[in-house]
């Protein structure tokens, strides 16, 4: 059984959000995700890899 990238990303993001809520750290998680997104935006070769969905959101 093979999952497509969107399904995997959806499951991962849901789990990450649930963890942030559980730890009452949603704002901190959001700030870190924004920083990670900026890394991909600032470095296009990285954004063309398997994690390109992060930079496009």
Automatic annotation (TrEMBL):
Family matches, as Pfam families: OSCP (PF00213)
Any one Gene Ontology cellular component term annotated for this protein: membrane
Subcellular location as annotated: Membrane
Protein name (record): ATP synthase subunit delta
Species for this entry: Lactiplantibacillus plantarum subsp. plantarum
Keyword field contains DNA-binding: no
Recorded GO MF terms: proton-transporting ATP synthase activity, rotational mechanism
Chief location of this protein within or outside the cell: membrane
Keywords: ATP synthesis, Hydrogen ion transport, Ion transport, Membrane, Transport
């Amino acid at each position: 059984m093979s999952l497509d990238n969107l399904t995997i990303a959806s499951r991962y993001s849901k789990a990450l959000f649930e963890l942030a809520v559980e730890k009452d750290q949603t704002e901190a998680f959001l700030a870190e995700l924004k920083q990670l997104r900026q890394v991909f935006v600032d470095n296009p070769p990285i954004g063309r890899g398997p994690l390109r969905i992060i930079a496009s959101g």
